[in-house]
């Protein structure tokens, strides 16, 4: 929520590069979090597998479509996903 605006404002990255950079930052954070939960015995591979596979497929598709998607469309899709996630958290 904060990284993209910071990359746009302070670092002056173009919009698409800011989104791509924020996704690249999320990967190592998720990997470390996964390792911590695994080490503590709090991560069951079975229930986590669909999320890992869908995340890998989404990352691959995002990489393939990176050059073809406009910044405006990317911003709108990201906003819709954020709103959808917020609504799901409420209910």
What does the largest sheet look like? none
Q: List the helices and strands in order.
A: HHHH
Which residues form runs of ≥5 with pLDDT under 50? none
Q: Helix fraction? A: over 70%
End-to-end C-alpha gap? 21 Å
Approximate shape: globular
Nearest-integer average pLDDT: 84
Break the fold down into its secondary structure elements and pairings.
Elements: H1 3-9, H2 15-39, H3 45-65, H4 71-90
Helix pairs in contact: 1-2
Would you mind describing this structure in some detail?
This protein is mainly α. It has 4 helices and no strands. It has helices at residues 3-9, 15-39, 45-65, 71-90. Helix 1 (3-9) runs antiparallel to helix 2 (15-39). The longest helix has 25 residues, at 15-39. The protein is globular, with a radius of gyration of 15 Å. The relative contact order is 0.09. The model has no long low-confidence stretch (mean pLDDT 84).
């Amino acid at each position: 929520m904060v990284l993209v605006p910071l990359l746009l404002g302070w670092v002056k990255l173009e919009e698409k590069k800011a989104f791509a950079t924020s996704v690249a930052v999320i990967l190592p954070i998720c990997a470390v979090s996964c390792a911590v939960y695994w080490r503590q015995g709090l991560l069951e591979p079975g229930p986590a597998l669909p999320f890992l596979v869908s995340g890998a497929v989404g990352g691959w598709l995002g990489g393939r479509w990176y050059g073809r998607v406009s910044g405006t469309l990317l911003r709108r899709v990201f906003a819709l996903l954020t709103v959808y996630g917020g609504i799901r958290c409420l209910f």
